[in-house]
Structure formats: C-alpha cells, structure tokens
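Input/output pair, single chain:
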Amino acid sequence: MARVKRGVTAHKRHKRLLHDAEGRRGTNRKLVKRAHESELHALAYATRDRKQRKRDMRELWIVRINAAARIHGTTYGKLIAGLKKAGVDLDRKILADIAARDDATFGAIAEVAAQA
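Output:
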C-alpha cells in the first residue's frame, strides 16, 4: 500500500484556521495552536452572546415602553397589566417601536390600558 503524506491536508486546515483568525491581535492570528484556541473561544462567545442579545433587546424595549408610559401618566407594569386585561396582544418589540416612532398611537394604547 502506498504511503500517505498528510502535509497538504494539514497545510490547508492551518491556512483556513489562520484566515478565520484574521483581525485578532498578536499570536492569536499568527500561530496555529493559539489561533485554534482563539477560534474555539470566539465560537463559544458567539453562541453565548446570541442568547445575551435577546435579553439585552428585551431590556431595551422595556426601558423605552416605560419611558413612554410615564409620559402618558402610567407605569410600565400598569400598562402591561392593563393591556392584558383589555386583551390587546402587542409584544414588547412592537410596543417599543410604536413608543419611539408614533406618540399619538402609543397614547391611544395607554388610554385603552388605563380604561381596562
């Protein structure tokens, strides 16, 4: 059986790894072993931060809704409770968008929540 040399495969793998590590500092982009570790950490952080981004966005939406609700004389908690009682199914993303872009519409929504 013929001998198989693996230099080409390893070189290709290393080259791809170093290409993915572009933009990092120091040995994290120059040395294969450090670049590999850096890549594994980057993938782990990316996975973690996709979940974190969802939390951060929800937090931002709540802050925006609360600010707009206070302008209209209520609080975030009372607004959400009133909307649930009134049967209005608007999620926080849409409410925050309305609060930021259309004050009159948000005022009408706040009025519906206050009456409920």
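Residues 32-71 form the longest helix (40 residues). Helices lie at 7-20, 27-30, 32-71, 76-86, 92-101, 103-115.
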